[in-house]
Specification:
Order of helices and strands: EHEHEHEHHHH
Pfam families: DUF4435
Protein name: DUF4435 domain-containing protein
Structural class: alpha/beta
InterPro entries: DUF4435 (IPR029492)
Helix content: 40-55%
Distance between the termini: 38 Å
């Protein structure tokens, strides 16, 4: 990632370092912004923390990490310049934020929705 900062295309962008490729795809789909670049070491939270610390130690102050909360919030863990998802992980944020209900309403057969509420469907998933 350090090499990207040498390119004029990336020199002024805000960098968010993420845990994996699926996080990059999700954020590029839902939060695309020409001022932001999403990247990942694709190795999980410890490598995100290390990457942010390394890049900032090289003077790149526009770098932040975005990680799944996992149990860090419950355990009171925090890391400098690392932000956590509101829920346990990105997938749970989608469910809690209503995206899952919208998806079910759009693609589930109407006959099933007449019998079961969205809450029943959500609560019975395994």
């Amino acid at each position: 990632m350090l090499l990207l900062f040498r390119s004029p295309k990336y020199s002024r962008k805000i960098f968010f370092t993420l845990e994996g490729e699926s996080d990059i795809r999700f954020l590029n789909t839902h939060f695309a912004d020409e001022r932001i670049h999403y990247d990942s070491p694709c190795s999980g939270k410890p490598e995100v923390i290390n990457a942010v610390q390394l890049l900032r130690s090289h003077g790149k102050q526009n770098v932040y990490g975005l990680c799944d909360a996992d149990f860090d919030i419950l355990e009171g863990n925090s890391y400098e310049n690392i932000h956590f998802t509101d829920c346990h992980d990105l997938e749970m944020m989608l469910i809690e934020g209503g995206s899952f209900d919208k998806f079910i309403s759009e693609f589930l057969k109407t006959s099933i929705l007449r019998i079961h509420t969205l809450e029943d469907i959500r609560n019975n998933l395994k």
